[in-house]
Amino acid sequence: MSFGNRTSNSPSFIKPLVDMGEILGSFVQISCKISGSLPISVQWQKDGSKVSSGVKHKLIQQDNSVSVEIEQLERSDAGSYSCKLTNAAGSCESSGSLMVKEPPSFVTLPESQAAVPNGTVRFKCTFKGTPPFTVKWFKDDSELMTGPSCFTGLEGLSCFMELYKVGVTHSGAYSCQVSNDAGSVRCSADLTVKGWPLSNSCVAVFISHLHRWLNSVTFSSFCRSFIFKAVCHRLSSFVAFVMLLHFPPPSCLCC
Question: At what angle do helices 238-246 and 200-216 cross, to 10 degrees?
Fold first, then answer.
């Protein structure tokens, strides 16, 4: 009686390794499912170097599933991982890359500012992390969009927001939110616009009345000019400057 040789099945991957992107500091399991005649030898490599069980990596083999576990992902864990299967009938190999995604964090923060009416204000901050990024700016939790009075921009790992012709109503808390696939972070700064909360038309009327009153009282030309200029300077308004040119006290041109 003769017996035929028992057939051995070469190893193969039912579920091969795939490319992965995981968050910095997270738990990661790089796994695949295999088949073939036992015993099967499993060898793991990272960037061509052997991976062994230890403090950093834990190698798991259970039923038809094999894996490498990393308890806390670090930047140095990024790379190409491969799994090689070998038995008496042959061998096969599967590989996949691991990318470590870093949540955004701020390197420099925007600074709180004080501004005068009709001026331009610019907030800027820099950050780090894994691109691509989404950047949003807010005023008191209301999102700001680029328009005639506001412009937002992103330049590499820095972003900025500009406000034009600011008024007292622009005073408040401004915040920047930076997001990517790994997370989101937010910072804020305050803006204080100095000056009287008057509209340009109100300022024009006030300056006109001030001019008439100064010319009606018995002040010297020097006093009238000094008071008029001081009030206009205090208003910090373009309209005040225009009215000063339009209604100059007699001594303004020579003081």
Answer: 40
